[in-house]
Write a structure and sequence with these properties.
Helix content is about 35%, strand content about 20%. With about 475 residues, it is α/β, with parallel strands linked by helices. The strands form two sheets. A nine-stranded mixed β-sheet has the order 14-13-12-11-7-10-9-8-15, sandwiched between helices. The protein has a six-stranded parallel β-sheet with strand order 3-2-1-4-5-6, sandwiched between helices. Strand 5, helix 6 and strand 6 form a beta-alpha-beta unit. It is globular. The relative contact order is 0.14.
Amino acid sequence: MVSRTIPVDPFDLVLFGATGDLARRKILPSLYRRFLAGQMPEEARVIGAARSELSDDDFRDLVREALKEFVSEKAFDADTVETFVERCSYIAVDAKDDACWQQLKSMIRDDVIKAFYFSVAPSIFGPLAERLRDHGIACENSRLIVEKPFGTDLETARKLNDKLATSFGESQIYRIDHFLGKETVQNLMAVRFANVLFEPLWNERFIDHVQITVAETVGVGGRGSYYDTSGAMRDMVQNHLMQLLCLIAMEPPNQFEADRLRDEKLKVIRALDPIPPEDIVRGQYKASKENPSYAEDAENPDSLTESFIALKVGISNWRWKHTPFYLRTGKRMARRMSEIVVQFKETPHSIFDRDGASRANSLTIRLQPDEGMDLSLTIKEPGPGGMRLVNMPLDMSFADALGPRGGEIPDAYERLIMDVIRGDQTLFMRGDEVEAAWSWTDPVIAGWEERGDKPHPYSQGTSGPEAALMLMHRDGRRWRDLET
């Protein structure tokens, strides 16, 4: 099956922070791939904006270098690259200097969609939004894209929401979480709500527990000083893992529309139980022969910041009251993997010999590196000699089954940027959703800070600290193995 490409309307996208790492690694390559696919129209323009003094030609050289480094050989077409680069221009902009804003206004067309991408530090979101408003650059059909972190706690998130609200309406603000742009995450909604197979079973009567894992093999590296003020709870759980939990746990909206879907996610966040200390495990990776410790990466020998966290989360509503959700995420783990495992309960009574093995079904949703799903079923092992049962997966890789020619499926940023141009907020977080997530997260963080809890040390290349394994073992359950 070949995916369809539906062109969007002409647009001008102003990319603030255009010389930064995220722009080079993700945003510019994503725009190029949409141009290559024919979705980004010929009339579209990309205007890079940053504090560096660059000419248009300098910026175009930067774009070429970024595409050469971060676009696959299959997608890199020299002629198309040149055509795309010609649609890029640049302006040096200082968020606190009014002199350059009239020049930026003259570069943007009035008869196309205007999108402003803030790939910059959150501290200048407010000043940038105010300049766009005060100089008449933004208008009613403008869209504002903001990257995480969206605040560091409830208070800062509220202040940031209030600052943006003075210049843009909520319907114009797109708070981006790239996890929601992944093909598998969106297919999770399709699997749940477009098939009669799962929804009748999607509750505490039939599901034993849910595991959500986001494991990384890299350390904090050059982000050490930032990460040490954040940690895994703020950096990953409050946004990425929270969004995945919401999509698993939410009630079906009455239609697939942005605010109705986000209403249901908000209900899940507000139903989350407070987490007792015994249901939280924090860890910090130790030094290995090849790599420094977290404390060395963070340049803080006394750091109490977690590079790993595991949580047992409960949801107080009728659907999920007795079904625990286990969340874990960490750096320097055994392998890079993001997945959701929905573990169903065993049959009430087995007529077969179980030989000590579990025969419960499970649905595994793989987010990376190989996007897809598999459903574990119990079947008879082929051959004579009795009824020997084995668990076998029904496996679907999206790249193989649904991807375009060449086996590549669109990157999350490709999809999300095009959704912004279309004006579709379905996969973006609403302001009250962000604040509700911080309302749940803040007391957890405050609790371990008041107690002076220290993270458990763990070896690099493992599944995390031993205490995280015990978090599930005490309940008679096991994490999916990361080390095989």
